[in-house]
Amino acid sequence: MSAKTIGRIAFQGEPGAYSHQACREARPEMEALPCRTFEDAIDAVRRKDADLAMLPVENSTYGRVADIHHLLPESGLHIVDEAFVRVHINLLALPGTPLDKVEAAMSHTVLLGQCRTFLRDHGLRPVTGADTAGSARLVAEQGDPKVAALATELAGEIYGLDILARHIEDKSNNTTRFLIMSREPDGRRRAERMMTTFVFRVRNIPAALYKAMGGFATNGVNMTKLESYMVNGSFTATQFYADIEGHPDDPGVRRALDELAFFTSKLEILGVYPADARRL
């Protein structure tokens, strides 16, 4: 490990991925550890190969990241921070390649869909790659100047590619929210705006969810997210994931959580952490 780094933060993807960019922005002092899957990133922290994990949970354009809500409660890790990362897409090509010589752009299908206007205006054929950073690596390895990649500026830096066009995404507000996970919780910190994330299952009684949510309204607690998902593929076992503003020690939050507990068969707090400055 470099003497300039303090600890390791694991992420899913290849070097230069957007999750790698999130690590660079949120924890620049840490060494970023690429992992093949989300489970591998979580396991790296559990095995103490890494101190933190950077996990994407939702995107402003495409919604929640598949499977991540199932992984969080079972991970044994705790949310200690959140990070909002602006998704800027760039066209990367072999050094010295002019834009008019490029015929195709390779990337993950999601990014290709976010740059339709630029690709159409420049007559570039979309080519589906396994992922964003992997596409940049492949462009560098194959050495074909007619094929460029859509990826982060960081990927261009890592794989030695020129940036032919910056910030070419169709939507100017495309943002991904990440959660930073640790082996130990950190509920001691206090900031002007705190967030609490938890999962719960309601008891099998009439209007249980309606009654469980009532405590947040009556105590003036703002719930910023509430999502449901099936547990173990069962239509009858539904778990809810929620984000609220506030700290469990705040009187209103404490009363709301106490009321929620009365109507639930399971309630687990996943993390208490400061709100990111970019949170609306």
From TrEMBL:
Reaction it catalyzes: prephenate + H(+) = 3-phenylpyruvate + CO2 + H2O
Q: Which GO terms describe its cellular component?
A: cytoplasm
Domain ACT: start-end pairs: 197-274
Annotated pathway, please? Amino-acid biosynthesis; L-phenylalanine biosynthesis; phenylpyruvate from prephenate: step 1/1
Q: Where is this site: Essential for prephenate dehydratase activity?
A: T176
Give the Pfam families listed for this entry. PDT
Q: Which UniProt keywords apply?
A: Amino-acid biosynthesis, Aromatic amino acid biosynthesis, Lyase, Phenylalanine biosynthesis
Record bears the keyword Lyase: yes
Which part of the chain is the Prephenate dehydratase domain? 8-183
Q: Which GO terms describe its biological process?
A: L-phenylalanine biosynthetic process
InterPro entries the UniProt entry points to: ACT-like_dom_sf (IPR045865), ACT_dom (IPR002912), Chor_mutase/pphenate_deHydtase (IPR008242), Preph_deHydtase (IPR001086), Preph_deHydtase_CS (IPR018528)
GO MF term list: prephenate dehydratase activity
Please report the name of this protein according to its UniProt entry: prephenate dehydratase
Alphabetized NCBIfam families for the sequence: PRK11899.1
Output the superkingdom of the source species. Answer: Bacteria
Q: What is its EC number?
A: 4.2.1.51
